[in-house]
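It would be a great kindness if you could assist me with a short task in structural biology. The matter concerns a single protein, recorded as an amino acid sequence and a row of backbone structure tokens. Could you please explain, in whatever detail you think fit, how the structure tokens follow from the sequence? Thank you for your consideration; the sequence and its tokens are set out here:
___
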Amino acid sequence: MNDNLYALFHSRFPADKSRPFLETGDGRVISVGELEDTAARYAGYIRSLGVAPGERVAVQVEKSPEALILYLACLRAGVIYLPLNSAYRESEIAYFLGDAEPKIFIHSSRDSAWVEPICTRLGVAHQFTLNEDGRGSWAENASKSAPMLEIAARAADDLAAILYTSGTTGRSKGAMITHRNLSSNALTLHQYWGFKPDDVLLHVLPLFHVHGLFVAAHCVLLNGGRMIFHNKFDAKAALAALPRATVFMGVPTMYVRLLAEAAFGQSLCRHMRLFVSGSAPLLAETFNEFQSRTGQTILERYGMTETGMITSNPLAGAPASRRGGTVGLPLPGVSVRIVNDDGSIARAGEIGNIQVKGDNVLPGYWRLPEKNKEEFTADGFFRTGDVGFIDAAGYVSIVGRSKDLVISGGYNVYPKEIELLIDEMPGVTESAVIGLPHADFGEAVVAVVVAKPGQTLAEDEIIQALKGKLANFKVPKRVFIVADLPRNTMGKVQKNELRKQYAATFS
């Protein structure tokens, strides 16, 4: 038996290869047959370049149909797919390429000037371009390649992808994702969310993130159905497409922006079967206003890069069974428990550390054996780093993040990475980065900076300096210059006090 995830998708493709798989915002339609043919050619080209199963292909491109097909081609060829946020810059990309050692790096042509020296220095064997319009040296060369007709044989525990997730020490960790992790989670979600043959997904999420690449796309691929595929989220474009869709998946920021449109309401949503929200906490006011405006109840779920989806509010029995403020019940086959700091199991309603176990959970982090020992318990549960509770009915609620993670617009931001850069700046003694409530982004990144005696610091200069070093979503929206930071008796900075002090910044 071939446990390659692509083999699972292939088994669900319709017999009629002329059926549409993907329709772009400008009306281009890609059939199932075209999808398979292009994926086979891309896979054939990967193999022709000497990339063997288990080796890596790194990709940092804007969203396009070709980018999605490239991911499927990597699965088909049995190589490990390494998606990178298109906002990452030089120092970030250099770290990822140095750590993962990919044989191929595919990127946007606009970045060639700074990418090429990095690839040369690190010995990346092949580099190509792929742009948002689907053109570039990758598409041009791969389209002429002989197709790889077979699907590479992969075991369930072979790696399918590596996704980098920032660490609290400032070093990003490569989450190793197996074919078993992805297939088990995809099959569970497809069934749990009740996908039907005639479902149409409005896909507006990025493809370098678990939500868009794995959760959304996998459900469609398993369904043998189709999607309306927008390269970027635009509220007005989404409104225009909604009447032709039945399922929408988004982050809270997208729901806030939909609600800001006067035309958004019940009539536009009458054909919709399901709205799913994730990647960041959904505010109660957004949940309630959406329900009032549309007559639909958002289904909120909870997951991580390392685990895929862990919990989900139920599909059946809405709206009463979908509880605002909770992330629902553990998915079938997934075990979730709340553990006190001393290792004992918490009682119902008692806040503690969230741990999870199941076929969806990663085997570990790339080349970090010591870290892997820390992240898993003796009985095989993964320590998520999130804090929450499970109520008497089994619903899970997230109340915080033990590692000071900030989620801004659905993207994870770890303060330490930003603090290290700020602390290196002339005139800075130290800094603390926090997340503050923001109506659009859910949380906004904010830095509180202590100046050295006699030094003058400017907010705009710090922000500008960071823009050249960090992805834009990590750059603080505000920087406050202070004389000192609040500390506890052990000398640790009390970020909870900072969050209280600046809580009204964006209100």
Notes: Residues 54 and 79 are 5 Å apart (CA to CA). The chain has a mean pLDDT of 93.
